[in-house]
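Subject: Sanity check before I submit

Could someone independently write out the structure tokens for this chain? I want to compare against mine line by line before I put it in a report. The sequence has 525 residues.
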Amino acid sequence: MTPLRRLLTATALTALAAPLAAQELTIVREVDSNNYDPHKTTARAAAEALFMLGDTLVSLEPDMQTVTDGLAERWEVSDDGLVYTFHLKEGVQFCNGREMTAEDVVYSMKRWIDPETNSPVSWRAGDVADVVALDDRTVEYRLEQPFSELLYQLTQSFATVIAKETVEELGEDFGVNGFVGTGPFCWESWTPRDKMVMTRHEGYNWGPAFYENDGAAHMAKITWQIVPEENTRTVALVTGQSEATQYVPAIALQQLRDTPGVSVQQSDNAFWTYFMGFKIDKETVSDPAVRQAMNLAVSQEALAEDLMFGEVEPAYSYVSQAALDWNSAIDDKLLRHDPEKAKSLLDAAGWTPGPDGVRAKDGVELRPTAYVFAGSGWQKISEFVQAELLKIGVAMDIQAFDATVAWGKLATQEFDVFGMSYPYVSSGDALNLYFRSQNMPTPNRMNWNDPETDELLQTGKTALSDTDRAAAYGKVLEKVHSAAVWLPLYHEPMFIAQSDMLEPIQPHNNYGAGFYKGLDLKYKE
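---
Independent answer below. Compare away.
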């Protein structure tokens, strides 16, 4: 028995005997967000909180396929796919007590797409012609071109409805020093890199219909506690310092499953992929041979088995091959572990080993700089990749940053390689996020600037038939894989480890948020 397992087993009994903090819950997580403004962050940590602090027009069920009610109780779509009419629920209130109206939806949507907001995810709103309030409870969302995934995008945290007066009062500090939404919880405080505290929104009764709880949240308070260290998060769970986490280290998953008083819930209903991307106009990784060789150098199978203990699937594709609109024609063209071929590619491209084994060409050494998130997870992943690359003569330097500053760093031109993971429900969702030229410098951190890609993405986005959409996205998948723009690492399911003092938690994969709105979080009676 490992030391960690002995500790888990010994402390679990203490956790079972500890008194319940009747209606308070502490969730530990690895990293924080840079802010909690829904229009200005793409961090999963932000989505985790925003889904609880606010609401969207429509919601996504845990099956990650069914769009259901949110702030809108129902909606209609015109035959040409250009007009969506949303009918809002009655009695919805912001946390400040003010009634929400259609004008609040209009303000939120228009702020999202306003160029002055400079949202990195404004494209998710579609090509908006206008958003208008027909009356206090009816919103008409007008598009210039059809958007086949609009309803899904409107379930995302970026589409959260917010209170205009709070935005105007706080200015640049909105989402930093305060936030007012209509969600089941209200903002109490945020201490960056430490914790966020939210309290129950009394009187809340407009949650999505798929929740068993149709009223206010069971929990009076939720604290999101930042705990970067893997072992510390694990021990916090089994000793009762935390009741739940979705940031479960792979090394501890089986041990937690075997630990009295702890359960692990798993969902495979969505996709989450880890990868390292290349800024393709930087001096070294601008060479396609270098990018291909770096792909061939890394054993995703060893990473999945040795570092992730077999809990994830090795990734050779940029999206899961089970995702909607995956192009199966490129299955046999995906780059797989072959270090000898990697060396041959570099030799042929003129990158020759120096005295220390590091390759160079025209006086430039193959020493790309990688930016990753600080914390035990990405630190281990990047060090694994670093060791694999060194075997073929590539000496990758790693610079790790706390999440509160990493997002800003990742919007610069200072790095050659970056580490990232992301959620998606379809190939189109993933490709539109990362490969549109208008999304440079973030989230298109690769500087992939290709007019044909933009045209194909627009074709897929506005397609009115499944066949046309899949054909367009399939061509983009073939282009970016052929160019070796990323080094895919692994596909990960959703895990939530929880105390058995809680009712079983159903993982919800929308943007990887796990707990989604938190309405059914509840201690056993």
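---
OP: Matches mine. For the report I'm noting this point. The CA atoms of residues 167 and 174 lie 6 Å apart.
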